[in-house]
Each structure stands twice: as C-alpha cells, then as structure tokens.
Design brief:
Strand content: under 5%
Number of strands: 0
CATH topology of the largest domain: Tetracycline Repressor, domain 2
Helix content: over 70%
Structural class: mainly alpha
Largest sheet: none
CATH architecture of the largest domain: Orthogonal Bundle
Number of helices: 9
Distance between the termini: 63 Å
CATH class of the largest domain: Mainly Alpha
Length: 207
C-alpha cells in the first residue's frame, strides 16, 4: 500500500511538472498562472501547493529533473571505452546539449539563470549551483577515466582540465539560450572546435 501511495504521489508530481513546462512554453514563465497549471494537471490549487511552494520552486524541480537525467546518461558514457579524448568529450557534451530543451525552453533557462544570479543566497540559487557543480565533476570524472585507460596523458590534472572544459561548456550554453536563432547542432559544432586543441594536447602520444 505504501508503495502504491508513493507511486501515485510521484505520478501527480510528474503531471504537475509536465503541465507547468507545457504552459511555460505556451505563454511564458511570467504569464503562466498556478491556477492554470493545476487545472491542466488535473489537480486542485491546494494540491499544487502540497508539492510546490511557487512557480520558482517548480522551475527548479524541472531543472533538477533535466540535470538528473543527463547525469545518469553521462555516467553510462564514462563507463564505456573510448579511443580518443575528443570523441569522448563530444559524446558527453552532446548528451548535455541534446537533452537541454527536453523540458525547458530557452526562455525558461534564461529565467532560471537570472533567478540563480539575482538571488545568490536563496535555496533556488544554491540548488542551481549545486547541479552545475555535479555536471562539472562529471566532466572531471570523464577525464580521469580516460587517464586511467591510458587515453589521457598521466601528468594531466584531471580536475583542473575538467573544470576548465565545463566552464566553457556552461558559458557557451549561456550564449545559446540568449540567442533564439542558434540551434543545438551549431552549439555542439562550436564547442567541439574549441575543445579540439586541448583534447589533442591531453592525448597520450602528443608531443
């Protein structure tokens, strides 16, 4: 019985998130009303507040859902054998970028970023920063895994390089969400080109 209740709660939570993301895309984050989200999800407004405190809380839950899914996919990528640094990096970063608009629009990402910067001491900002740190750590973990397999040179500082790479991945993603005309393929191509020289220098056998 407890398991069934937990499943129903999870299903309702997911329904509310899906309704919110649909409405955010349709009318924009600022214009979306909690009453309309609740109606679309088939729950009462009171039930909505049992799950989320406000729209910002719901937006953060959506960002968290997005990041948790890409982290899981990223772990699977790291576990596989890779013959080169550049292809491995491209595969991991492509997973991040390809999934980025699954639940959130560019406008929603801009709102989330703005909230995290404007109110740095809020729970929203701290959760957003923590998710960024987990993604950064995953890039470091990829470099470390490649080093253990002999693909990356032994003297490379995996954490320093991983953080450098993620900082660029993050900055380019900010540029992507700022530009409504930029597509994911263009973003991936630009970042792969930027990563190529560093990947070459890190590779085993490089001069």
């Amino acid at each position: 019985m407890t398991g069934l209740r937990a499943q129903k709660k999870a299903d309702k939570n997911r329904r509310i998130l899906e309704a919110a993301t649909t409405l955010f895309r349709k009318v924009g984050y600022d214009s979306a009303r909690i009453e309309d989200i609740a109606e679309m999800a088939g729950v009462s407004v009171g039930t909505f507040y049992n799950y989320f405190k406000n729209k910002g809380d719901m937006l953060m839950a959506t960002v968290s859902m997005e990041v948790e899914e890409v982290l899981a996919a990223g772990d699977a990528i790291i576990a596989r054998d890779h013959e080169g640094v550049a292809p491995a990096l491209s595969e991991l970063i492509a997973e991040y970028y390809d999934h980025s608009l699954t639940y959130l629009s560019k406008e929603m990402w801009r709102t989330a970023m703005s909230l995290s910067i404007a109110q740095p001491e809020t729970p929203f900002s701290k959760r957003y920063t923590a998710l960024d740190h987990r993604l950064s750590k995953q890039v470091c973990d990829l470099i470390r895994a490649l080093q253990k397999r002999g693909v990356v040179r032994g003297e490379v500082d995996c954490d320093a390089v991983g953080e450098l790479l993620f900082n660029n991945v993050n900055m380019m993603f900010i540029e992507f969400v700022k530009d409504e005309n930029m597509d994911v393929d263009g973003l991936k191509e630009a970042v792969s080109k930027q990563n190529a020289p560093l990947a070459s220098m890190m590779s085993r056998g490089a001069d």
